[in-house]
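Sample log: SpoIID/LytB domain-containing protein.
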Amino acid sequence: MRLWKVLTVSVFVCAMVLQGWGASLASAGESAEEPIIRIGVVPAVESLSIGGQGNFDIIDKQTGEVLFTGANAQSVVALSGTSTVQSFFRLQVAFTTSDVYVADWVRRATEEGYATYVENYNNGYRLYLGEFAPDASFAERVAFKNEVVAKGLAANDAFWKVVTTAEGENRLTISMDGVVKETTNAVRVIAASEMVTINGKAYRGVAEVGFNSSGTLAGINELSIEQYLYGVVPRELPPVPYGEVEAQKAQAIAARTYALSNLGKRSADGYDLLPTTSDQVYGGFTAEHPISNEAVDGTKGIVATYDGKLITAVFHSTSGGFTASNEDVWNSEATPYLRATHVAQKGNSLKYVPALEIYKKTGNSESLRKVKNGDFEADWSRYYRWHFEWTAEEISDVIGSYFNTDVGRVLEINVTERSRSGRAAVIEFVTENGTFYEYKDRIRWALQYINANGSPAVLLSTLFIIEPMKDQETGETIGYKVDGGGWGHGVGMSQVGAVGMAEKGYTYDVILKHFYTGIDLETRY
């Protein structure tokens, strides 16, 4: 019997995991009916509103009882009964799929007197230490992290997250037009128009409010896969300015494949996927656009497969000229269809990325410090090439904050290993108070830039060169400069690269087979 407590975390952004779910879909071949998907559009709250456009019923999901009827109205659903909702800072220290590792880690941490928490996630476990009030000081949390790192219970890349839980009997109240009803079951909104609202936002399909694994409420949108894609494709590849239909079709197939291969991924919380970059960005009905809807309709049921199984169809904004193999970015086994490949460049569609020296600042590279919102330019991405500079004080603060220690002056920054695509694989920070290392895509978090609001932000990619800036008179290092290309992890399909290929006349099947090596395209329904 497992003795550790299982919790759900309310906020987390992570890299896409190279592991498919929905194994039955991956191996079942043709499917007669279009699948249904559930999106946790509001994943963890104490209350929210639901309603419908036109006439609708609010029903008890378990009993089928109609609790309310309405038209163009909203109701409020809230936690009630004896539930106690609490939010704490907790330190996520690891992810593992090993029960043996979890049991040993829990034993060691408990022996040291620390609170331990374990969350079921993606066929594995997230491990947490500590419990700090939301107003706990940063210094207090840093001291705790340094302590558990020193004891071998966490690594330097452990990070803090706010975890919301509810304990006690799970009940909810539904309020509408002054009438209040209570149930222990999830409730659903069924509208004749098939248009519902969750927290005032419009969605196709059905709205549902249920309990997540932490005991708080989740607002869930249940709809068909194709309707879901209507709200995904325009958010992942905006039709304005990227209106090339073949690129939109490629995006639709990649998004459909990702969705089908990840059905059930977050079933512990009552839904399949989140509407964020943790999975795929989903904007509901208001995000839809005629061009992206056309692309979804024109590729209905088409998915990408390798050896008959759905692929993990990861994608990113901009490659910078060369995509990456998955094992060069994440700690995962090499995936045969996620191989590094060249990407079409402006005016020269199928040439390889030039030497790294091309990333040094030119007249058309964009200073990241001036960028506020990350808007795209109409002609490919403004981040195809970019540049940034840190003062000596800024680079010390950035690296010191990441490693949770005072590093003093930064003496050298060296990329000691690169992948075949040219991306930094190992970076070395030589400082007055020690030498620190980071690896693969985590380098982007270790080497953050300072945006226009004065806040640190994750570096756009690992495809860069970094050099010291010297005082011309004394030769002293006064800062560092980085010149790079691309935006995102670099694995799989480059979205603006797909647009560039479409502009050159390539069709969606050629585009997808360029970015995903050796795949097939199949119609599943």
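Observation: The longest strand covers residues 66-80.
Observation: The CA atoms of residues 369 and 451 lie 5 Å apart.
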